[in-house]
Amino acid sequence: MEIYLDHVKTIVDDLAAVGQPLDDQTVTHYVVNGLGPDFEPFTQMVTKQVDHVSFDALTNLLLTKEHRLQLQVHLQKLESSSRPSLNVATRGHRGGGRTSRGRHSKGRGQNGGCGFERNQHDRSDSSNRPLCKICNKRGHTVIRCHNRFNLSYQPPAPPEAHSAQLDNSFDSAWYIESRASHHISSDASLLTDSGSYNGLDQVMLGNISGLTISAIVNWLSKEINRLESNKMVITGATETQFIVNDGRRGLSNVPLIDSVDNEQIIIPETKSWKNFFAYLGPGFLVSIAYIDPGNFETDLQAGAQYKYELLWIILVASCAALVIQSLAANLGVVTGKHLSEHCRAEYPKVPNFLLWVIAEIAIVACDIPEVIGTAFALNMLFSIPVWCGVLLTGLSTLMFLALQQYGVRKLELFIALLVFTMAGCFLAELGYAKPKSSEILKGLFVPQLKGNGATGLAVSLLGAMVMPHNLFLHSALVLSRRIPRSIHGIKEACRYYTLESAFALTVAFLINVSVISVSGAVCDSSNLNPEDRRSCSDLDLNKASFLLKNVLGNWSSKLFGIALLASGQSSTITGTYAGQYVMQGFLDLRLRPWIRNLLTRSLAIIPSLIVALIGGSSGAGKLIIIASMILSFELPFALIPLLKFTSSKTKMGPYVNSKKVSALTWMIGSLIMGINIYYIVTSFVNLLLHSGLRTPAAVFAGIFGFSGLLIYMAGIIYLVVRKNKEITPLLAMEQAEIGQTCNNSDNQRAIHRREDIASMQLPPTGNATDLD
């Protein structure tokens, strides 16, 4: 094959030298048409591809195919000439020197009939007796060993893993470790002297298929007080495997390194609807952003001023949020990388750095409402001053982050518990307020915008529903699951993550509807005093507590405080994780959760504390509005890359969005971004008109502001127009390029473990440096 391809390359170079160059499509056409009958299936697969294969890629594929054919022929020859030798038990022949039974033989014995000759019993050699792999004693197998289920039994030697091979086998190919013993790890960082491997050798599997070798490493094993260096390889499979090359395959495998981390959430390979429960968790962490204190304040204002009129906005925004969040989850599932990692790989250094700065500012801005909301909740429940509550928020969040020591599942369960606590509190508030169900249904399904300011508030509701940090968070959280890496496995993961997100966002939607309904019912009450009516005209989180207390009773105020505290604390936990993923993805830099939380929380506490000390509760409420404006400003810089990546075949391969889905998502994204830009412009214009600045100062402020707006629009246009250049290698896409689809035998492959993602959520379960 190499000679054939070199000959083709010579002809192509000669033609190019005389001014008649050939493109890759033409060269590929002539190469595949010149192949022999053994390559006929390969030829058909290549010619049917929509995207033409380059000459270099075709060369690699052909050399690999030829290597597989040679190995297959070699194995067939061995199978036809030898029989496998297994570890079996044999029994000796019974001495049967039986004489003829004649009439003249009257006695027994050597000459008598019907007797057995003595000393003819052939005892078999003891080496042919089976050896138990548990107790190392001969005469029985593992299934009959009485120490089989004795956990306290200590064998005289470590358990051994043997392999069955051909009697005259001299094949020195790479053989996959059987995992029959306790000495396998998926952590390549424990190995030493790692080096990339660019050859064509492959690891042969039982079905005569091969795994490409991507790296060769050395490991040290300790056995009988001596160190022994061994060669291993890491295959290009999605699940990291450690392979040992040993011509003496009949010998046992020596224990290598520590066991794999058993804390990872592994999705079962069987097809069952019960797999859905293994995917539950990330959606609840994502849904927190839709029920944070900032959303509560907007909901309270919408209900107080327009009753149930804007409920349909919440319904539309929730559906749009589900579509956008499902794209973020699909990006992580399909590519094995989260959004910020794709940005680092795709964009040059300067745009990548600016995107990171904007994302970090957005996370700090998202943390401000949570700090203030938690401080308000502490004031409602324990009468702690707001400024003091601001200081306490940092300590309380660090305490809740300690839950990660018990695993990601426990943390997800705790967040889900907080979400359902909020739901229970506001459903109880609904029972106190008793709004009219007919008006709630009308507000949900009959769009209307009446009254002054309804449009602006509707814009605020829509803009607040999709948080930029949530897109980074969701695309990373899905990597905590270990899914079967096949076409069916990936599609199942995408489907179940969408259903799981829909379930969590439905709970968040009901909470938002409850807040608006309670606020609308309370402010529409006939027994409001003048002070409460003034509170309804400008309702914020702090005033809502006193309003509920005066109208519905003291317990309603306490329930609101509990829900607000749960919202603030859960939001800060998810914000900390989002910050970790952003920093790790854009800069390839990771910090411990408590350090990351301390930095983010400090940047959020300082302005919150200053405003709380100077402006009090009203100033803190205005700071929440400013933080919402910052989030609206940042949203396009997270949403546009997400839409571009999920609509790109170079990123998603066969799992790219369809044209209808792409059109829908771009329409939703454009609507959300247009609303946010409108919100920013109108807010800036109102600020100029009502700032009280003199005309020259107002003119200079306007020039400065609109210049910044032009730069902002130029950045958005750059992200939209720029074409994706980085190609994400996908296992399923690589198979599709040569016309192979994943069948049932391929469904056993699983996605590689993301140690960086897992370490952000789970602490090490043991000393990773210890070797067996």
TrEMBL record:
> Which intervals carry biased composition (Basic residues)?
91-107
Provide the protein's localization: Membrane
State the Gene Ontology BP annotations: iron ion transmembrane transport
Topologically, how does it sit relative to the membrane?
Multi-pass membrane protein
Q: Which InterPro entries match?
A: NRAMP_fam (IPR001046)
A Gene Ontology molecular function term for this protein is: manganese ion transmembrane transporter activity
Q: Name one Pfam family in it.
A: Nramp
Membrane-spanning residues where? 276-291, 311-333, 353-378, 384-401, 413-433, 453-480, 501-522, 559-578, 598-617, 623-643, 664-685, 697-721
Region of interest (Disordered), ranges:
80-130
Indicate what this protein is called per its UniProt record.
Answer: Nramp
Q: What is the lineage of its organism?
A: Eukaryota, Viridiplantae, Streptophyta, Embryophyta, Tracheophyta
